[in-house]
Predict the 3D structure of the following.
Amino acid sequence: MEIKSFDHLIDKMKSNTIKSRVAVVSAADEHTLEAVIKAKRSEIIQPLLIGDKERIVNILLDLGENSDEYHIVDEKDDILSAQMAVELVHNNKANFIMKGKIQTGDLLKAVVDREKGLRTGNIMSHMAIFEIPSYHKLLFVTDGGMNINPSLEEKKQIIQNSVNALISMGYEEPKVSVLCAVETINPKMQETVDAGELKLMAGKEIKDCIIEGPISYDLMMSKESAKIKGFESPVTESTDLVLVPNIASGNILGKTLMYSGGAKMAGMILGAKVPIVLTSRGSTSEEKFLSIAISASACSKNN
């Protein structure tokens, strides 16, 4: 199975009888609540709103909602709100977490707390999801948002984080491209050496996926380019997940797809016990909504 678009994903999720429960930390934020309301109306989540209850209720009323239809926990302190969300996950009352009007560091501090947090022992990583007009299915990209210059071992864990999420969404054997500037191993370009090592790990140290690397963007996206260069791979024009060599290349790729390629984007943090919606302050309510949808899908098998 593969997901063609965000609409395809949402239609698929509407058929789920059990809805994912999202704990929204410091939920008194208009853009966040707009996204939560849309996700609730789309029948893909059950929201648990943690924060200043009076402000949350007022925002809901301004947005035309009946606050009585929402489960709201009154907690004005951001730090305590984050800790409460983590506790809800531990008690199986929430399936994933969403950042509201709270500093990212304050939320992650509660998540990575050694005694009460949601650490798994794996590295935490960011995965972006793009719906690109010129591509026939969703393209997942990691890690352009969290790890600056990952080592080979960290790249291995980053791939596994994303593959696990895709498996939870219904993918059987995601096709992974380890993106580089060239498609051959060059000892002077460490990312190509790492890519070759990662390819050898597929099915062994990295489970449930097909890995190609090193591979350049043109060979990943175009069978014609691959044919001209004599490059054969099952990932060409069929890639599900892209591993970028570092945060700079991932950030540039993502913004290029959005601002020049007309792509829609969602994103989430992986590697904790549950997905975390951690969009930037400048994210639109649509991006927040799509991030809720993809995160709910990534934990749907665990509900």
